[in-house]
Design brief:
The chain is of the alpha+beta class. The chain contains two helices and three strands. The longest helix has 13 residues, at about 55-70.
Length: about 70
């Protein structure tokens, strides 16, 4: 069961660790595993600072399993 989580919105160019699952894998295997929110490249004075997202423990476990099977090189 997914739960709501308030997270800080990250703006700018974000570099993620490699390897990464494809967008299709993420959507089909663990769609609610993210614990962050990307706000895009441009930040303005009135840009929101936080977002409310859904995070699912089963999705987090599936994501961890994927990363365990694809270690950093």
């Amino acid at each position: 069961m997914a739960s709501k989580l308030k997270v800080k919105i990250s703006y700018g160019l974000i570099r993620f660790p490699q390897p990464r699952p494809s967008l299709e894998e993420r959507r089909s295997e663990f769609p609610f595993a993210r614990d962050h929110y990307l706000g895009g490249c441009v930040i303005r004075r009135d840009s929101p600072k936080h977002a409310l997202i859904y995070v699912c423990p089963e999705c987090k476990a599936a994501e961890k399993k994927w990363y365990d099977a694809h270690p950093k090189k």
